[in-house]
Write a structure and sequence with these properties.
single chain, 326 residues, alpha/beta, D-Maltodextrin-Binding Protein, domain 2, 2 domains, 3-stranded antiparallel beta sheet, 16 helices, binds trimethylamine oxide
Length: 326
C-alpha cells in the first residue's frame, strides 16, 4: 500500500506524538477500512447501441468479480447525464463527444457529476456512405458534392429532396439544423434503432442504391462495410453556439462533428466515497478502438447476448483488465 498523504488523515496532535511506525500501522488500517465498497448495487445505464451495452456488461462483470453488486437500467442516452448527476445511476461508460458532449458539459456545470477520464479510443460520429456510393456521386466525400446529387438519395418519404437516415432521436440531435444552416437539399429521417440503420444499409447495398446514413467509429461496421464519412465544413469548438463560426455567419451547427472526438467515462460524484475500489477501477479503465469495435461485433455480427458477449470478451482479454482490478 502506498501512503501519499499521511498528514491529511491524522489529527495534528497524533502526528506530533506518534512514531512513524505507529502512524503507518494506523494508516494501513484506516486505508483498508476506507476501501470497503458499499454492498448497494452500482447502477449502470444501458443505451441503444451495442458497444455501450457490451462495455457496460464487461465493466459490471469486473465489478462483480471484485465482490460488488451491480444493477443495469435502460436509460435515454441524453437524459442519463442528469441521472448520473443526481446519483440515480452511478456512472456512464461511453460519453461520445459528438453526440453527448453538450449534455455532459451541461451536467458538469450544474454539478454532481465527475469526469472519470478518457478511454484511449478516438471517436467520430457523422454522415457516412458505403464505398460504392462514391461512384454514383462524383466528388465525395465533400459535402457540396453530396448536396449536388441530393436527388439520387430521394425516397417517397422525402419527395424531391435527398434522405439522410439519422440515428434514433436520442443521439445527435442537430442534423436538421445542419441541413438548414448549410442550405442542403436533404431531409432527415430518424431510424428507430441501430439495427434499423444496419438493415437499411444492407438492403441499399444489395440493390446498389445510394444511401447516406449516420455511422460512427469505433463500430463493427468498419470491419464489414468499407465506406467513408462525409467531409463537412471543418469542426470548430463552439460552432453549435456561435453563428460566427462555420461558413454561414447567421447559423449555428454549420460545421462537422469532431473528427477526433473523445470517449469519456463519467460518474456520480458520490461514487468515489460509496464504492472507492470500484471508482478507482473506473478511473483506470481505458478501452481502445479495436477493443470497442470487437465488443460491438460480438453482438451485431456474432449475435451473442450482451452478457455472453461480455463474458467472452473478458475471457479473451484478461491481460487487459486483470491488472485494473488488482
Ligand atoms: C452515440 N453513438 C455512438 C451511437 O453515436
Amino acid at each position: 500500500m502506498t501512503l501519499k498523504h499521511p498528514q491529511t488523515t491524522l489529527g495534528a496532535g497524533l502526528v506530533a506524538t506518534a512514531n512513524s511506525a505507529f502512524i503507518g500501522a494506523l494508516l494501513a488500517f484506516s486505508g483498508s477500512a476506507l476501501a470497503e465498497d458499499s454492498s448497494d448495487p452500482i447502477i449502470i445505464p444501458i443505451h441503444n447501441w451495442n458497444s455501450q451495452i457490451v462495455m457496460s456488461n464487461v465493466v459490471g462483470q469486473m465489478f462483480e468479480e471484485m465482490g460488488n453488486n451491480v444493477e443495469y437500467v435502460s436509460t435515454d442516452s441524453q437524459a442519463v447525464y442528469e441521472s448520473v448527476r443526481l446519483g440515480d445511476v452511478t456512472l456512464e461508460l461511453e460519453v461520445w463527444e459528438g453526440a453527448f458532449g453538450a449534455a455532459f458539459n451541461e451536467a458538469m456545470e450544474k454539478g454532481g457529476i465527475v469526469d472519470a477520464g478518457d478511454h484511449d479510443a478516438v471517436t467520430r460520429e457523422d454522415w457516412w456512405y458505403p464505398d460504392y456510393v462514391a461512384e454514383l456521386c462524383p466528388g465525395l466525400p465533400d459535402w457540396e458534392a453530396l448536396n449536388a446529387c441530393s436527388a439520387k438519395f430521394a425516397t417517397p418519404e422525402t419527395g424531391d429532396s435527398g434522405r439522410f437516415l439519422g440515428g434514433p432521436v436520442d443521439w445527435l440531435k442537430h442534423d436538421q439544423e445542419r441541413v438548414d444552416a448549410l442550405g442542403m437539399d436533404f431531409t432527415v429521417v430518424n431510424a428507430g434503432s441501430a439495427s434499423a440503420l444496419w438493415a437499411e444499409l444492407a438492403a441499399a447495398k444489395k440493390r446498389g442504391e445510394p444511401i447516406v446514413l449516420f455511422n460512427w467509429t469505433p463500430n463493427f461496421i468498419e470491419a464489414v462495410h468499407p465506406g467513408a464519412f462525409i467531409e463537412f465544413p471543418e469542426y470548430e469548438p463552439g460552432c453549435a453556439e456561435d453563428p460566427a463560426l462555420g461558413p454561414n455567419p447567421d447559423a449555428t451547427y454549420d460545421c462537422a462533428n469532431p473528427p477526433n472526438g473523445y470517449l469519456k467515462k463519467a460518474a456520480w460524484e458520490g461514487m468515489a466515497e460509496k464504492w472507492p475500489s470500484a471508482y478507482a477501477v473506473l478511473e483506470k479503465i481505458s478501452f481502445t478502438n479495436p477493443q470497442i469495435a470487437e465488443m460491438a461485433k460480438l453482438v451485431d455480427v456474432d449475435e451473442l447476448e450482451p452478457e455472453e458477449a461480455a463474458a467472452e470478451w473478458l475471457a479473451a482479454n484478461e491481460d487487459v483488465w486483470k491488472d485494473w482490478i488488482n
